[in-house]
Design brief:
The complex is a heterodimer of chains A (about 400) and B (about 1000). With about 400 residues, chain A is of the alpha/beta class. Helix content of chain A is about 60%, strand content about 10%. Chain A has a 5-stranded parallel β-sheet, with helices on both faces. The chains are: A alpha/beta (about 400), B alpha+beta (about 1000).
């Protein structure tokens, strides 16, 4: 049973939530408290999977509470539920909150968000990884792109279009910016899957504040793990992104789906970045193992970590509230058969694009190249499309 | 003699060879017809031929025929050897060209005889041919001689007849081509400056030669390097036998050959020792210029040079004669006396002028000495010097005082010089003399006049100049020179104003001068500005007049001027100072009016004209009250009177007036008294500014601050509304789910009731009822549903209250004061601003219910209360920081005499003494940049004091808190809101 803690200084809110969520009482064990201090006392006594807190509260506000929770119980998923739209306060919580929900928030959305983050837990059974992912505030970026973005932002005539284009090329920055626009942090509509659109929605001042004050982007430190090339990852991600986009445009009439495919392609290996940045030694070991045994890196990761970069990436992006099709495509990009999909979806495109790029540039230092899951393609009735996709891949 | 034996039978051949060799012949042999033909075909073969008729390859007959076909002369003598001897055979052989016939077998004697006969015939033939050739050569020689003679004859005629050099050259060329039969001939003269050029002077060519030579040059081009240059400038005649093959012509030989120029001769034309040019003759034949022809050509070229020389000599002689004729005429008619003597001084020639002057005719003086003119006035030493000088070969110049034939004395100047022959020996003396008697007199007069003129020019304290018609200085005096900053008048003469002044000035002066010259009208006492190229400016007072020569023709201008720069500069400075002052006063965006001690307007600036609509002319000299200004005149007059009396500064605010366009405005007027200084005239300065805009701006600013604070409030208000919306939604959702469960339960109860009624109650049903009740969570619902409904209603009420308060707070579109319930206004503001204070403070209100309605702008009043509340909340927040404690904000209303008093108290930080005096200043703020504009209290002050005639003050203690006290006059409300 998942344990959820709700924090709000307004008793009527707490009681309302309590009543509304009563139907979930068989799945969730819920606790309702009236202040941050109380919440910390309760957390001290027992573990909670998710904390949902108001932002503006006397004495200790939501950002302060979450900063503490992040420090003390990093595994706990942190969701803001606030009716306050002051940007200063919002920026304060960007680092420590996983997601942001705006009041009034309808029951389905609240239940769905909490349920989804709980379900994400199932992705990773390994204790250590879960901790690392929950703790992550940023995904590291390719240094050259990061520097370019910072430089463009400092330019008094900086162009949103250019910044959007640069961010779109880096999976670290793209993922973070999508997290921010897809949650209710800035009161924007949901499901944005293009970073360029995201930057446009936020506006230059907010992006500047996010980069320079809140530090939502960070640099990848190459020295920690030399056997892993972030440039190669970057190239591969861009290629898979654009190929998946082409495939999706060919197969799907839904433009949102095409955007999702592009973004999922770009982000599909973000788990690798998480592992390389946080557990360089083990990740290095996984690479060596893959080479020695000539198995897929993904299998080697499973052996070393108990989970692969696909799940790690999916978990992180899920925690960050990125759209479901993206999370699904990232999580299952090696084993699309594990998803429940029956028709073409972004996952299909990303899986194929990834396998095709691997085949084309099989990298001997990263073990065996992953291959296309034909059973899955048969199940989504796309088995005949491979040759045409292969053409596009070139 | 060479004999060819053509025989296929080797025995016969060898036999014949030996036999013939023995007989003294040189023998060649051939084994078959083909070999024989090989020896014969090139034409230099044997003269006799013993030919076997039947021979392999070509047979004898074929060889005969082929020889006939190929050669027309010098055919070998052919004897056919054959076994055939029929008549037909013989006919065939002779027809084919055989000369003789020998039937095999033959006798040696017969063979020898036949060979001798053949030999004789061949020899005879050869002699005949040689003779013919000799005759032909003779004939050609004769022909050529004839031609040469003809050419020379023709040429001598040409030379005799032609007196023009160019024509001579052309005729020479024509002759060479037309009569000489040469392909082309041309003459090139050496270029004057550049000796590597030949310029074509004349040329002739046969019609088919398409070539035109104008000049040939060499030097830098290939002609200079390949040796062709030397060909073009030969020092002796040169022959090129074959142009095509001659290495000296390799650069042009092929082109020339294509034109049919195959051989050439180049003949230098030297006049005296001087090389003049070249005659080129080209022939279409190779080696045309053999010794004979060359000789002819050389002779021709010699004749040509002589011809040229004689033409030139003739011309020169004629020219010299002409010059001499002109010279002697000039001397004869010369206006000066000319005398020529021999070496002894005896006169050989005098001209007409001499005779006219002295009265002596030529005949009278011929052979005499010029001393007949001596008057005794010229000293003897002068004559001695004269002789000494001229005999030494030098020219003597001097003056004589001589006597005419009629005894009259006269002055003359003379130049006497020796005349030399072509070897330089002195042969005669020449005297050229001019009478100077009148000139001397005039000179004396002039000298005196000039002295007077110079004295005047150089001493008069004015600049004087004379210019010609084009503006060139003819004469300037020293004063003028100094004016130009120069020391020597020579530096000015011949130049124009353009050399000294700036372009514009010189142009203007030039135009003036043209006008004077054309109209004859002088320009008198003109004040003229002179601008110099270095930017310097001077002023002169000048008169300019036309300069007329003795014949009355205008030849220029002259002028006299005085430098008045100093005076002018002073005038200018004064003028400028005055103008600057006026400009300054005009540029001030306030009305500036100066009144003298009688109250008359003496200054009226542009702003006064524009603002009051009264032009300067209509204002100056009038009294203010006569000016028909549409303003509150009595107020203005009153304060003027007051100011005149107490001589102090006076201010008058918000004086209403009407602008020229009829709109109304407000003036702020200041009056300052003049005349308190010693030398200052008494008077008043009235300055006024239209402050309507300022007042309006103040209004706008107030409005802007309100919008800003409403914007700030909006986020808080959103939160205030979002919170109840959240729980109302949650509760309704809960009620919805609960109702579902209850309805199910009701169904089960319905079944139960039905069972009870029909008496069919079963234990199963009873269990179902219990299970359903448990399922529906009935106990929980009983407890929670009423609370959920209650809280939802509260939430809805909360939202309505906020919305209502918002509307009351904003009070949009109100311009006039209305009677306002201050208590209610305060409560609305508190509600709207709740989010600003609720996290830091409790609010305690003590509102006097008996407070009457107060006339006010309620929007502005709410703004004041909001500002005070926000400041209070901020002060408390600063004090409590993040301790979680809350302060208190107290709001109190009561009636104090004729005032409504509102007190807003906080338990914040208090106001430090050093900034207490500044808190109502605009833009003063203690908050960090970006938080608040610093306008709040300033605007509150303006609203309370300026708009409502109330007062605002505060009491404060650092660390304890602050209380603001606002008082509004109760007054009579114009209408009830």
């Amino acid at each position: 049973m998942r344990r959820i803690l709700f924090v709000d200084d307004e008793p009527n809110i707490l009681q309302g939530l309590q009543r509304m969520l009563r139907s979930m009482r068989h799945e969730w064990e819920m606790t309702f408290v009236g202040s941050g201090q109380e919440a910390l006392q309760i957390l001290e006594k027992s573990n909670y999977d998710v904390v949902v807190s108001d932002m503006r509260m006397p004495v200790m506000d939501g950002a302060q509470l979450f900063a503490e929770v992040q420090r003390l119980y990093p595994k706990t998923v942190r969701i803001i539920l606030s009716g306050y739209s002051n940007q200063e306060l919002i920026l304060k919580s960007v680092g420590s909150a996983h997601q942001y929900l705006a009041k009034p928030c309808d029951a389905e959305k609240l239940k769905g968000t909490v349920a989804r983050t709980c379900a994400l837990r199932e992705l990773i059974s390994a204790e250590g990884l879960e901790l690392i992912v929950s703790k992550m505030q940023t995904l590291p970026s390719v240094p050259s792109l990061y520097t370019a973005v910072v430089k463009e932002l400092q330019n008094p005539n900086s162009s949103l279009k250019q910044i959007g284009e640069m961010i779109s090329k880096d999976l670290g920055m793209a993922a973070k910016i999508l997290q921010l626009v897809n949650s209710a942090f800035f009161g924007l509509r949901n499901h944005v899957s293009s970073p360029a659109e995201a930057v446009n929605l936020l506006g230059i001042d907010t992006v500047k504040a996010l980069v320079f004050t809140v530090h939502i982007f960070s640099l990848y430190d190459k020295s920690k793990l030399t056997s892993f090339s972030i440039e190669e990852l970057w190239r591969h991600s861009l290629t898979v992104g654009s190929t998946a986009h082409l495939i999706a445009k060919k197969e799907s009439q839904n433009p949102k789906s095409c955007d999702d495919a592009l973004m999922a392609g770009l982000l599909h290996d973000s788990g690798k970045l998480v592992l390389a940045a946080n557990l360089p030694e083990q990740f290095g070991r996984a690479i060596t193992l893959a080479n020695d045994k000539t198995i897929c890196l993904e299998e080697a990761e499973r052996e070393v970590f108990g989970a692969s970069h696909a799940e790690v990436g999916g978990y992180l992006l899920g925690l960050w509230g990125l759209p479901d099709p993206i999370v699904e495509a990232v999580s299952f990009h090696h084993h699309p058969g594990r998803s429940l999909g029956q028709t073409f979806e972004p996952l299909t495109a990303v899986h194929a694009a990834n396998a095709m790029d691997h085949e084309k540039r099989s990298n001997p230092t990263h073990g065996k190249a992953s291959s296309i899951d034909m059973d899955y393609l048969v199940s989504v009735k796309m088995e005949g499309r491979i040759p045409e996709w292969g053409e596009m891949c070139n | 003699m060479k004999v060819l034996v053509a025989e296929d039978d080797s025995t016969s051949r060898n036999f014949l060879q030996k036999l013939l060799t023995k007989w003294g012949y040189e023998v060649l042999t051939a084994r078959d017809g083909t070999e024989a033909w090989e020896l014969l075909r090139n034409g230099e073969g044997p003269s006799l031929l013993l030919l076997d008729w039947m021979i392999p390859g070509m047979d004898g007959i074929e060889i005969c025929q082929s020889l006939r076909e190929k050669f027309t002369s010098a055919l070998p003598y052919i004897i056919l050897l054959t076994a055939k001897d029929t008549e037909d055979d013989l006919a065939l052989a002779f027809q084919a060209g055989a000369n003789d016939f020998l039937t095999k077998p033959y006798k040696r004697g017969e063979l020898k005889g036949r060979l001798l006969a053949g030999e004789r015939i061949v020899t005879l033939q050869m002699q005949l041919t040689e003779r013919v050739n000799q005759l032909e050569k003779q004939r050609l020689e004769n022909e050529r001689m004839n031609r040469s003679l003809r050419i020379l004859l023709q040429y001598s005629q040409i030379l005799a007849r032609t007196d023009n050099e160019n024509a001579l050259l052309q005729e020479t060329c024509d002759l060479l081509v037309n009569s000489g039969g040469h392909r082309m001939a041309w003459v090139g003269y050496k270029g004057k400056d550049d000796n590597s050029q030949l310029i074509s002077m004349a040329s002739a060519r046969q019609a088919e030669v398409k070539l035109d030579i104008t000049r040939l040059s060499w030097g830098a081009n290939s002609w200079g390097t390949d040796g062709s240059g030397a060909l073009l400038l030969p020092d002796t005649p040169r022959v090129i036998g074959n142009i095509l093959t001659d290495p000296r012509c390799k650069t042009w030989g092929e082109d020339a050959s294509n034109l049919g120029l195959n051989s050439a001769i180049m003949l230098p034309l030297s006049l005296g020792n001087l090389f003049q040019g070249v005659l080129f003759v080209y022939s279409s034949e190779v080696e045309a210029f053999d010794a004979e022809e060359s000789k002819l050509m050389v002779g021709l070229a010699d004749d040509l040079t002589h011809g040229i020389l004689s033409i030139r000599n003739r011309l020169e002689r004629k020219r010299v004669e002409d010059v001499l004729r002109k010279l002697s005429q000039a001397v004869e008619q010369s206006p000066v006396s000319v005398v020529i003597t021999d070496l002894n001084g005896n006169i050989e020639y005098v001209n007409l002028k001499f005779s006219r002057l002295t009265g002596y005719s030529f005949e009278e003086v011929l052979g005499k000495n010029p001393s007949i003119l001596k008057s005794g006035e010229t000293p003897a030493e002068e004559y001695a010097r004269l002789w000494e000088t001229i005999t030494a070969g030098e020219e003597w110049r001097g003056e004589f005082h001589n006597r005419k034939k009629n005894g009259e004395l006269y002055w003359e100047t003379a130049s006497i010089s020796p005349i030399r022959d072509s070897e330089g020996a002195i042969t005669h003396f020449l005297a050229v003399k001019e009478e100077t008697t009148e000139k001397k007199r005039v000179e004396d007069e002039l000298k005196s006049e000039r002295h007077l003129f110079r004295t005047l020019m150089d001493t008069v304290p004015a600049n004087i100049y004379f210019k010609d018609g084009t503006g060139r200085f003819l004469r300037v005096n020293h004063s003028m020179t100094n004016h130009f900053g120069l020391s020597d008048p020579g530096q000015i003469l011949g130049r124009t104003d353009f050399d000294f002044f700036s372009q514009e000035h010189a142009q203007q002066a030039y135009r003036d001068e043209r006008k004077i010259i054309e109209s004859g009208q002088p320009l008198l006492d003109l004040e003229e500005k002179e601008t110099w190229p270095d930017g310097r400016i001077t002023w002169v007072s000048t008169s300019k007049m036309s300069l007329v020569d003795p014949e009355g023709i205008v030849i220029g201008t002259f002028g006299i001027s005085r430098d008045i720069t100093k005076r002018k500069l002073m005038e200018d400075a004064l003028h400028k100072a005055h103008r600057e002052m006026t400009d300054l006063v005009d540029s001030i965006p306030s009305i500036i009016i100066k009144l003298d001690h009688e109250g008359k307007i003496i200054q009226w600036n542009r702003t006064a004209t524009e603002t009051l609509g009264i032009p300067l002319a209509a204002a100056i000299g009038r009294r203010l009250e006569k000016c028909k200004i549409k303003w509150d005149l009595s107020k203005v007059i009153g304060v003027i009177a007051e100011s005149s009396k107490d001589r102090h500064l006076h201010r008058l605010e918000d004086v209403r007036y009407e602008r020229p366009d009829g709109t109304k405005g407000l003036l702020s007027i200041t009056l300052s008294f003049l005349g308190r200084e010693m030398d200052q005239e008494e008077g008043l300065i009235l300055s006024a500014t239209d402050i309507s805009e300022r007042r309006e701006l103040e209004n706008h600013l107030r409005q802007a601050q309100r919008i800003e604070s409403i914007g700030q409030l909006a986020a808080g208000i959103a939160h205030e509304i979002n919170t109840p919306t959240q729980y109302v939604g949650d509760n309704i959702r809960f009620l919805q789910e609960s109702l579902g469960g209850l309805i199910d339960l009701l169904d089960v109860y319905g079944q139960l009731s039905e069972a009870v009624r029909t008496g069919s109650l079963t234990p199963e049903l009873s269990n179902l009822v219990e299970a359903s009740a448990r399922e529906a969570d009935i106990e929980y619902l009983k407890a929670e549903i009423p609370k959920a409904i209650q809280q939802s209603l509260e939430g809805v009420a909360q939202v309505s209250k906020i919305v209502r308060s918002m509307k009351e707070f904003a009070h949009p579109g109100q311009t006039e004061k209305v009677a306002t319930d201050l208590n209610r206004a305060i409560e609305s503001t508190l509600t709207v601003a709740r989010n600003e204070w609720k996290y830091v403070a409790e609010v305690v209100t003590d509102l006097d219910p008996s407070l009457p309605l107060v006339p006010c702008h309620s929007g502005d009043f709410n703004q004041v209360i909001l500002n005070l509340l926000t400041n209070g909340a901020h002060a408390i927040a600063t004090k409590v920081k993040e301790t979680g404690e809350k302060g208190t904000i107290g709001v109190q209303t009561r009636r104090v005499d004729g005032w409504a008093e509102i007190r807003v108290r906080d338990t914040g930080t208090g106001i430090p003494p050093e900034i207490q005096s500044k808190i109502f200043d605009p833009f003063f703020t203690t908050k960090e940049v970006g938080k608040g504009t610093g306008q709040g209290l300033a605007i509150s002050h303006s609203v309370v004091v300026d708009k409502h005639g109330g007062s605002i003050s505060f009491e404060t203690e650092v660390g304890r808190g602050t209380e603001f006290i606002v008082r509004l006059p109760l007054g009579e409300a114009p209408r009830v809101s």
